[in-house]
Design a protein that fits this description.
globular; eight-stranded mixed beta sheet; mainly beta; 347 residues
């Protein structure tokens, strides 16, 4: 891919009506840490983001290197990555089953109620047994006479349901949305430091990274609000779904974006966090998890330097926090200030 130097940036005009997200419209509440490795230079070393590892068509514009400033006020350079908001190389889905007789082969997945392990198959049988699964007789996501599953079959239903404060008429639905519902000129812009910069303390963010297919790696979904509205915000088998604000985004990683980058059997690469540190899968080639992870799910070795390891698909987080400086969204708060509540809640 071609790179454009920061000095030429002014020659380029942003896509009209593009919805710009600088990767971290984030909850920057500080995380206290007692990790003695936080100031250890060896722990934090890394080679930074490798553009060549992203999938073809992950970006709708050639990546650029531009001047930027981090949340801590550090002036540096960043990769400017512009994605279409969808996963390159595949069509999202399937999501909701259409009938309680449908199997897992024509539907997606959902978080396990235990909050660990793989996603559960969102089959028709699962929908039919929601009342017993959650020990709540109020679940009624299907017509008992026809067996048809209630799902958001229109753009209006999608937009009314794909948010924590679900509109009343869209409760008791399996939620799914289509990319076709969204604006053709939608884009996502990510600014990621070309070389990670160790932060004074970890931070929590709402967007935890960009996957190698160009889609967002999102923070936790508001599961309590979703289930409290008697809805299921269906994922496809890759652990992602769609809403009106983020387009397609991942809440889990199940292997769809994995890219092996070494010959030592290490866990495959998934994508990069907003601070530029790499995010690898939970399991390595032998099925082993990493040991001695920090509170952000970070670790370090002599080959990869500091990096993150993803959580299990049903944990409702990909990583716990970030350890490096990141770029604030336009109009975002300065260091030490909490951001205002988001004006649009989203899954």
């Amino acid at each position: 891919m071609k790179f454009i130097n920061a000095s030429r940036l002014s020659q380029y005009i942003a896509l009209p009506f593009a919805c710009t997200f600088l990767l971290v419209a984030c909850d920057r509440s500080s995380i206290e840490t007692e990790n003695s490795d936080l100031n250890n230079e060896k722990t934090i070393m890394t080679q930074g983001l490798d553009i060549s590892l992203f999938k073809d068509e992950a970006f709708i514009k050639d990546p650029e290197i531009v001047d930027c400033e981090t949340n801590a006020g550090t002036k540096t350079t960043c990769y400017k990555l512009v994605s279409s908001g969808g996963p390159a190389g595949r069509e999202p889905g399937d999501f909701c089953p259409r009938n309680i007789t449908d199997g897992a082969d024509v539907s997606g997945g959902w978080f396990s109620k235990d909050g660990a392990g793989d996603l559960v198959d969102l089959s028709g049988e699962f929908i039919a047994n929601l009342a017993s699964y959650y020990d709540d007789p109020n679940w009624k996501l299907y017509d008992p006479e026809t067996g048809k599953v209630r799902y958001t079959a229109t753009k209006e239903a999608c937009f009314g349901a794909a948010k924590p404060d679900v509109e009343e008429q869209y409760k008791q639905n399996c939620i799914e949305c289509e990319l076709a519902y969204l604006d053709d000129d939608f884009s996502r812009t990510y600014l990621i430091p070309t070389q990670p910069i160790q932060a004074a303390k970890p931070e929590r963010v709402r967007t935890v990274g960009i996957a190698l297919d160009g889609a967002e790696l999102a923070g936790p979904a508001p599961v309590d609000a979703i289930l409290g509205s008697y809805t299921i915000a269906a994922f496809d088998d890759c652990g992602g779904h769609i809403n009106a604000h983020q387009w397609y985004h991942y809440h889990s990683t199940t292997g769809c974006t994995d890219t092996p980058v070494s010959d030592d059997g290490y866990a495959p690469l998934i994508g990069y966090a907003p601070d530029g540190y790499a995010i690898y899968a939970m399991l390595d080639a032998l099925g082993n998890e990493a040991e001695s992870l920090d509170e952000c799910r970070g670790t370090s070795d002599s080959v990869r330097g500091y990096h993150y390891r993803a959580a299990s698909p049903s944990e409702n987080m990909i990583i716990g926090c970030i350890r490096g400086e990141f770029v604030l969204p336009e109009g975002g708060p300065r260091d030490g200030q909490r951001p205002p509540p988001p004006h649009e809640k989203q899954h």
